[in-house]
């Protein structure tokens, strides 16, 4: 006899909550980390925006680090690593262009 496929647990949309439970704090940290990482990486392309890229990168590193500490699912950790990478690259380039306090 053929086995029946259980489709009740199939996800129909993208979610970080792959365990079926809500994680509002963790999901907020993921969104903030990715947003700050994106700002840092884009701002680091311009020499005059070193304050924005270094501060947003530093904030993204801290929020991403705390998010990794309390994350509950693999999907959250994956997105946090992407955001952390962008924040770190933006932070380091911002530091190379002038730093956190504008010392050029």
Describe this structure in words.
The longest helix is centred in the C-terminal third of the chain and has 24 residues. The mean pLDDT is 88. By secondary structure, the chain is an all-alpha fold. It contains three helices and no strands. It starts with 23 loop residues before the first helix and ends in a 7-residue tail after the last helix.
Question: How are the SSEs placed, and which strands pair?
Answer:
Blueprint lengths: L23 H20 L6 H21 L3 H24 L7
Helix pairs in contact: 1-2, 1-3, 2-3
Give the mean pLDDT. Answer: 88
* Apparent shape: elongated
- Fraction in helix: 55-70%
Cα end-to-end separation: 74 Å
Number of strands: 0
Tell me about the biggest sheet? none
Beta-strand percent range: under 5%
Order of helices and strands: HHH
Structural class: mainly alpha
Question: What does the radius of gyration come to?
Answer: 18 Å
Low-pLDDT runs: none
Number of helices: 3
